[in-house]
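At your convenience, could you comment on the folded chain following this short note?
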Amino acid sequence: MKAIKVYTFGGPEVMRLEEIPPLKVGSEEILVCIKAAGVNPVDTYIRAGWYGSKQFPFTPGMDAAGVVLKTGQTIEHIAQGQRVFLSGSLTGTYAQQALCQPSQVHPLPDSVSFEQGAALGVAYQTAYRALFQRGNAKKGETVLIHGASGGVGIAAVQFAKAAGLAVIATAGSQAGLDLIAQFGVDLALNHNDPAHLEKALEFTAGHGVDLILEMLANVNLGRDLPALAKNGRVVIIGSRGSAEINPRDLMSREASVLGVMSGLATPQQKKEAIEAIAAGLKNGTLNPVIGTQLPLSEASKAHEKVMESGRHGKIVLIPDP
């Protein structure tokens, strides 16, 4: 089978498409034929070596969707031939096949495409964790979602609307603004507009925003804090450097800044997020958006595109049949 392999940390060019031996299925493992693999910014950080050591060579990727090829003798909840989406794997998802633990494999409804299934794992779990497990979002509150046209942002908008929150969402292009408007946001703003946070504050009649989901804290955090309500929260989902803030903006509101990293969720928290995703797919409130599809051989191009500003929707890789 074919898989992307990385032999050393570096730029996108270190990823190579290679023919590798077939994967062997253990008694407590599941082998999945990958129909689509999701690309996330965290994949680029791992490839670049920002997240510490890694055993080489490795296959990148955490998200995918496909069909179960084979199950170990002890597996009962997933059957051969079943459509599934993955939230992690043992062998990496930038490949034609992936070996998984049972907890990483989840049923994919027939109404959801494989490409959409590949957009669920990291993005939707991160959005759920940021909103509810870290941000403690409640019905009736107002949430500001920066970068709402990206994979995590779209997921957060959909979760927030379904939970009864008022949603202010930002994007950096007209295409992005048009996209988030489709999901019924209460106010769509261009975050390149220097006055966009003032407009968000006006929307709340001066009360302030109860919760902000921040995708680029090194740029926005210092400006976010004055837009918060009393007891407001900022949840940092992404940052590419340090940030400067005025602590009095926190003190005067008794506000909080929280970080989120999906990999630090407990097994119970992961289970809760997956159950919320499954429920949203079933009732139609969750609808992943695919922005770009590329063949597996163009994984390096996908890593370049996922870090570009102004992108919208999820980037997925499609393995050759």
